[in-house]
Structure formats: C-alpha cells, structure tokens
Design a protein that fits this description.
Elements lengths: L2 E4 L22 E3 L4 E5 L14 H20 L6 E10 L9 E10 L3 E10 L4 E11 L2 H4 L5 H4 L16
Antiparallel strand pairs: 1-2, 2-3, 3-5, 4-7, 5-6, 6-7
Length: 168
C-alpha cells in the first residue's frame, strides 16, 4: 500500500519517542486508504518471557496506532484524546528483534469519541495481536498541564518509505 506522508515522532513516548533509550522508536505513515501503518521492531528490553514481547507493550502499540489512525484519517496531527477502553486479543507470540507491521484505522467518530481498530502483524501479514480502542476527544492541554504537543512531537525525519507491503 502506498504511503501518503509520514507522521511526526515525539521525544519521549515509549512507542515513538526518539529520545527514549528504552522506546520502540517506531515511525508512522499515513496510507492511501486513510489508515496508519508502522514498520518496527521490539528489542530485548521489551521482553516478558525470554524471546517474547511483554503484553503491555503490545497493547501500548495498539493504543498508539489508534490515536494515529485518527491523524491518518484527517491528515492532521491536531486532534487528541484519552483512551477509555481497550480490548486486545493476543493471537500468536510476538518476538523481539523481528520486523513487524502495525496498522490502525478509525471505524467510528463523532464530536466526543472515536473508535479505532489496530493490529500487529509479522512480515508475512499474519496477525499476531489486534484490538479495538475507544477514546474521548480531549484538548491536549486538558490531558497534561502545560503540554505543548508541537514541542513534544518535534521530529519529522523522512526515511524514504514509499510503500508498505502486507497481506490483508
């Protein structure tokens, strides 16, 4: 699927923060179908059992893909929200040091909430985990006092990714 544009990365987010030494540092892309996708790898610091990624970090990526799915749909990084419900299904073990693909899409939205579906796949497109996330729309300044979204989401590093191939 064709990449339309790249989304910004933050400084310290555990999923996308480029300054977080323990973070995943995942890049996110707005796709031609209105979804968001990422190509990423968990590292050994993200394990629970040896060779396996911690379930909380799997769910954290599902959550990250959810908010970013709204940004991809709107082609804007101006909307924010807080998660009020997340339901993750763990389908197969997720191992670290392996290329993974994440995809999120907005499935419902009104003036107060939005609902997204997201998944993590292996390089062949097999779904390893998926989930539904529900968010309350909320101004970033109500989420965190003195938050400045554009100061935190400050990195936009082009990497030449023009297409992400996966099986649907």
């Amino acid at each position: 699927m064709r990449v339309i544009s790249k989304q910004r990365n933050s400084k310290m987010c555990i999923m996308c923060g480029l300054d977080n030494e323990y973070g995943v540092k995942a890049p996110f892309y707005n796709m031609e179908d209105g979804s968001v996708m990422t190509l990423f790898r968990y590292r050994y610091q993200h394990q629970s059992y040896p060779g396996r990624v911690h379930g909380g970090l799997i769910t954290a990526m599902i959550d990250e893909l959810g908010l970013r799915a709204l940004w991809a749909k709107d082609l804007s990084e101006e909307s924010f929200g807080v998660t009020f419900s997340i339901d993750t299904k763990y389908r197969k073990p997720v191992v670290y040091d392996q290329e993974l693909i994440g995809r999120g899409v907005t499935v419902r939205e009104n003036s107060r909430i939005f609902v997204t579906e997201a998944c993590i796949m292996d390089a062949e497109g097999a779904i390893l985990a998926n989930g539904t996330v529900k968010y309350f729309k909320l101004d970033v300044n109500k989420i965190a006092e003195d938050a400045e979204a554009h100061e935190e989401l400050c990195y936009l590093e082009e990497d030449g990714v023009k297409e992400i191939v996966f099986e649907k």
